[in-house]
Amino acid sequence: MILADGIWHQVFAFDHYGELLALVRNSLIAGAALGLVGGLAGVFVILRDLPFAVHGISELSFAGASAALLLGTNIVAGSIVGSLLAAGAIGALGTRARDRNSAIGILMPFGLGLGVLFLALYKGRAANKFGLLTGQIVAVDTPQTAWLLGTSALVLAALVVLWRPLTFASADPDVAAARGVPVRGLSFAFMIVLGLAVALSVQVVGALLVLTLVVTPAAAAGRVTASPVLLPLLSVVFAVASIEGGILLALGSSVPISPYVTTISFGIYAICRLAGTFRARHWGARTVTAQPA
Amino acid sequence: MRQQTATLAPRARRGGAGTALIGLRGAALSYGAHTVWQDLQLDVHPGEFVAVLGPNGSGKSSLVRALLGRQPLSAGTLTVLGRTPREAARHIGYVPQQAEVSAQALLRARDLVRFGIDGHRFGPRLRSGAARRRVDEILEAVGASAYADVPLGMLSGGERQRVRIGQALATDPRILLCDEPLVSLDLHHQRAVTELIDARRRSHDTAVVFVTHEINPVLDLVDRVLYLAPGGHRVGTPDEVLTSESLSRLYGTQVDVVRVRGRIVVVGVPDEPATPPHHAPDQEGARP
């Protein structure tokens, strides 16, 4: 019992909560931006079937960040460089899903290996190392926040411009190409946008758990709606709720932030999935009644 | 089921016979050393219904890609509305082969039609009221209003094909290019889909290029046939092209064409060449 109690207090602790809250102000701001970017990018990750690419990019992003840590330069910048290299390579190597997946499978362990090497060479605080993989909340200082917000703004602007043709090209590539939509160009452009979004998420939830921000919320939203307005909106709400909820719960504890974020995110998905089966039954019923054989 | 015709904004374009919408001159297409078709001459006029027939691997799909400007010819010229196919792409209403739409559950019938109107434009969507009303009109015209808000993945093949036709009509096309639009549809839906296409042709003088492996569902509508075969091709009315003599010449072997109760049955077509199959397996029975 005592042991269980001890674990409970490590996982959930809310002593001196007010003072701690002030420490993570930057993280909360960054979290909101990440939720927005991750939730929106996630919609296309689901539409284009790219979850594996997200994982691959995040490993390279981790390598970039650990290189930056070793060299003592800006970690966000390092992580962005790693991400963009990976996203560019994946975008250039294959447009067909099968080619793409093997390209990612080849890149991913290489990136992870490089990251491990850089971290092994790094002699600084161990918490910094661990944080890149599993996330951290107080690591976000003011200059980093500026980087995060600036990059988020860039990603959002790109998504606003690309949204319509990107949706067309993602959901209906054949007809989009026939209408003169630059399907290949958009595919590459989205990989770059995705690379930036992943690099941002790595900062807060860590390289191993980026999927929880970039895939799960959009997948959850897709379970309950097919509306092109509601889908991104819900996806963003879910992503922001996961990350901000995670930060607030993780605050007093000695456990990294990621389990909180992933658990909330997964919980939302589970609920949406349940709700979605009822929805599907409703749609299914319509198909039967509208077709009197 | 209600019978709806696609009479949207009736403004008939009565083009003279001289103004061909599609012009192929000495056109050839080859992949490396393999020539798919060559020396193809074809004019398609406003309001004309041209069926493209032929066995698998005879270059029907390549022709579609060429008409859409996605496949350059290896010889000859192709003009669409007097321009290059790529420049004319937005005047072509394209109905693709039935394929699974990726991530279908995230797209409603209404959204697919909407793509046809402004899906290709960059930037945020401003003042969308008119476009939304147009989508409703089109869905009504193709008889798809009842399932406008249902995800595509939950529609039957026939329902989805109605929506596809709606999407193609949304561009207000001068040419409808349909690639095997009847595959895997039952007779009832085959008729519904061909009626929608024919109605558009009559109301707007839209030219129809209809790729199919099965002529019978559209036999009454077809003005001319382009028959692509491994040994060459032939253009003409169904009565000229779909004869024992003409098909025997195309295939280089004895092929018999029989007319039974207004249907055409082709017997003796040799096994299709060993090319990668890109069509659904043919249904048994009347295959030209």
UniProtKB/TrEMBL annotation, chain A:
UniProt entry tagged with the keyword Membrane: yes
Pfam families: ABC-3
InterPro entries cross-referenced by the UniProt entry: ABC_BtuC-like, ABC_TroCD
Example of a GO cellular component annotation carried by this entry: ATP-binding cassette (ABC) transporter complex
Subcellular location: Cell membrane; Membrane
Keyword Kinase listed: no
Keyword terms: Membrane, Transmembrane, Transmembrane helix, Transport
Gene Ontology terms describing biological process: response to zinc ion; transmembrane transport
Topology versus the membrane: Multi-pass membrane protein
TM annotation in the entry: 28-47, 68-90, 102-122, 146-166, 186-216, 228-251, 257-276
Family annotation (PANTHER family): ABC-TRANSPORTER METAL-BINDING PROTEIN, IRON TRANSPORT SYSTEM MEMBRANE PROTEIN HI_0360-RELATED
Family: Belongs to the ABC-3 integral membrane protein family.
The protein, known as: Metal ABC transporter permease
Organism: Streptomyces antnestii
Lineage of producing organism: Bacteria, Bacillati, Actinomycetota, Actinomycetes, Kitasatosporales
